[in-house]
């Protein structure tokens, strides 16, 4: 007899046999009991979370010969054919092969015919996001006015790629990943039924590698049983999965905290030469940092064995909580760089080298305190004292808001008991208004209130050629060429004529 892999052999055939997804199961069962059946359903979520399995069970529940039920009989011809995938009225379609609109038109032509034998004609379209825009448009027409005997069940891992017009016509169900503990518990039952021995750490390693997917967990277990036989050894599991040893991760982290770049590079090279999956290594290091943060918070990670948790607790002493957060954030931010890189080894090497530099970074508080006098961080960032211009405009505004508006665009600076107020060439109107006798009186009044009787105001107008002449100056040009300098601010001296005339 041909061997059937665990993932296929152990596929649940009823709602009661399903693992997890309780809310989805309960909703569908309630719909079946009340016979409130929709014409279209969308199941979305990560791979291996039961989308297609639930779609098949739901199809059996709708077409079971004993009637619409939340517990199909499993023995009637309809249930058996759906189980084997050869039902005339339940069609499973791969969205990747039905991308063209012509394929959807074939469905459209057939869907209006009555079912060959069963109650409903059901179309299960897997990876529906792979359809073309034209194909989606064709399906939309079907969903707008579906025949009463037709039901569509769409399954996808990428809901965001499905047009909103399609989603709005479906009952939407979100399938979630399983926890490591849920997968481990399930694998223990499977291992017992398969009459295989396996240690707790071995099962945890398989469950973690599955990354939330029951199907992946069963596929990994199948492979390991084929290699190990009736007894699964932890060492073999680690070797087969390319599992990154916690001791190695601890060693890498220790050298990062010490800024030992050479040793970190050597360890990464060792991992690369061993043939380990670099993406898995990077993901393991990311989770290692996460576990260390949890240890800092005093919260144990339940998916870890006792020996692994001891390694984590020891490793969590290498850095402060804030430093761990900084490293964890940096590794997450660069995950996409590793995933899309043509040379992941080089990308990981670069990230590790940058991590080695992090311990050299100083906190702002430490820099401020280096003078020997503690400076509270709050005081260091207090708002600076207002400039003379700001205070001057506030006082002017109390007397005349229009005048404050004219002065706001001017260059205003105190210089040798003189207040220079200079307008650029594009502010000629503001300059003319400020030169009016009434406004000059207000300006002088406020200056004397702020600075004293000895201060005088000089209202000047900048000709367009002034700034150009400065930019064209030979000395300025040389500074710009040699040092890359640029003119940031121009200070104007009071023209002798203005001073002599004492124009206020």
Written description of the protein model:
The protein is α/β, with parallel strands linked by helices and 504 residues long. It has 27 helices and ten strands. Helix 13 packs antiparallel against helix 18. The termini are far apart.
Question: What is the overall shape?
Answer: extended
The computed structural class is alpha/beta
Q: How can the largest sheet be summarized?
A: 5 strands, parallel
Low-pLDDT stretches are: 494-504
First and last CA, distance: 108 Å
How large is the count of helical segments?
27
| Overall number of strands | 10
Mean pLDDT: 83
The strand line-up of the biggest sheet is 2-3-4-1-5
Q: Any idea what the radius of gyration is? A: 37 Å
Helix content: 40-55%
Strand share of the residues?
5-15%
Question: Brief overview, please?
Answer:
The protein is α/β, with parallel strands linked by helices and 504 residues long.
Considering the chains and any ligands shown, give keywords for the structure.
504 residues, alpha/beta, five-stranded parallel sheet, 27 helices, 10% strand, extended, disordered C terminus
Map the helices and strands.
Layout: H1 6-9, H2 22-34, E1 40-44, H3 51-63, H4 77-84, E2 90-94, H5 101-111, E3 121-126, H6 133-144, E4 150-156, H7 164-167, E5 171-174, H8 180-193, E6 197-198, H9 200-210, H10 214-228, E7 231-232, H11 234-241, H12 246-257, H13 261-273, H14 278-296, H15 306-315, H16 321-333, H17 335-340, H18 344-357, H19 364-369, H20 377-380, H21 388-399, H22 401-408, E8 411-415, E9 418-423, H23 428-434, H24 437-451, E10 456-461, H25 464-472, H26 474-483, H27 496-501
Parallel strand pairs: 1-4, 1-5, 2-3, 3-4, 6-7, 9-10
Antiparallel strand pairs: 8-9
């Amino acid at each position: 007899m041909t061997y059937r892999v665990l993932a296929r052999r152990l596929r649940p055939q009823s709602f009661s046999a399903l693992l997890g997804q309780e809310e989805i199961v309960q909703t569908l069962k309630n719909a079946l009991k009340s016979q409130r059946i929709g014409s279209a359903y969308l199941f979305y979520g990560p791979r291996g979370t039961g989308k297609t399995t639930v779609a098949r069970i739901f199809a059996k529940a709708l077409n079971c010969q004993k009637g619409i039920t939340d517990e199909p009989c499993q023995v009637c011809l309809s249930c058996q054919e759906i189980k084997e995938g050869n039902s005339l009225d339940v069609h499973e379609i791969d969205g990747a092969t039905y991308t063209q609109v012509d394929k959807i038109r074939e469905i459209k032509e057939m869907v209006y015919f009555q079912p060959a034998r069963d109650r409903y004609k059901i179309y299960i379209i897997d990876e529906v996001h792979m359809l073309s825009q034209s194909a989606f448009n064709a399906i939309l027409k079907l969903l707008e006015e579906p025949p009463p005997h037709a039901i569509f069940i769409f399954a996808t891992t990428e809901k965001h790629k499905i047009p909103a017009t399609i989603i709005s016509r479906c009952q939407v169900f979100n399938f979630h990943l399983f926890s490591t503990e849920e997968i481990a518990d399930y694998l223990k039952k499977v291992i017992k039924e398969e009459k295989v021995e396996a240690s707790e750490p071995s099962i945890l390693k398989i469950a973690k590698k599955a990354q939330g997917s029951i199907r992946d967990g069963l596929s990994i277990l199948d492979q390991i049983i084929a290699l190990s036989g009736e007894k699964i050894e932890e060492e073999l599991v680690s070797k087969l999965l390319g599992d990154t040893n916690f001791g190695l991760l601890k060693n890498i982290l220790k050298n990062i905290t010490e800024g030992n770049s050479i040793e970190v590079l050597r360890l990464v090279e060792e991992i690369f030469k061993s043939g380990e999956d670099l993406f898995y290594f990077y993901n393991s290091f990311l989770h290692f940092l996460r576990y260390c943060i949890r240890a800092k918070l005093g919260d144990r990670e339940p998916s870890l064995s006792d020996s692994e948790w001891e390694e984590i607790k020891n490793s969590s002493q290498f850095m402060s909580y804030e430093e761990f957060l900084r490293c964890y954030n940096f590794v997450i931010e660069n995950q996409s760089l590793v995933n899309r890189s043509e040379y992941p080894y080089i990308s990981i090497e670069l990230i590790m080298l940058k991590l080695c530099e992090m311990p050299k970074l100083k906190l702002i508080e430490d820099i401020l305190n280096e003078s020997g006098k503690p400076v509270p961080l709050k005081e260091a960032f207090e708002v600076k004292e207002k400039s003379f211009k700001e205070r001057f405009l506030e006082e002017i505004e109390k007397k005349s808001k229009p005048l404050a508006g004219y002065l706001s665009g001017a260059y205003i600076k105190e210089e040798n008991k003189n207040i220079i107020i200079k307008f650029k060439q594009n502010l000629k109107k503001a300059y003319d208004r400020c030169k009016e006798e009434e406004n000059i009186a207000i300006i002088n009044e406020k200056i004397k209130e702020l600075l004293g009787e000895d201060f005088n105001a000089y209202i000047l107008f900048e000709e367009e050629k002034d700034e150009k002449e400065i930019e064209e100056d030979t000395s300025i040009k040389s500074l710009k060429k040699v040092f890359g300098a640029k003119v940031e601010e121009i200070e104007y001296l009071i023209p002798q004529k203005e001073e002599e005339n004492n124009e206020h």
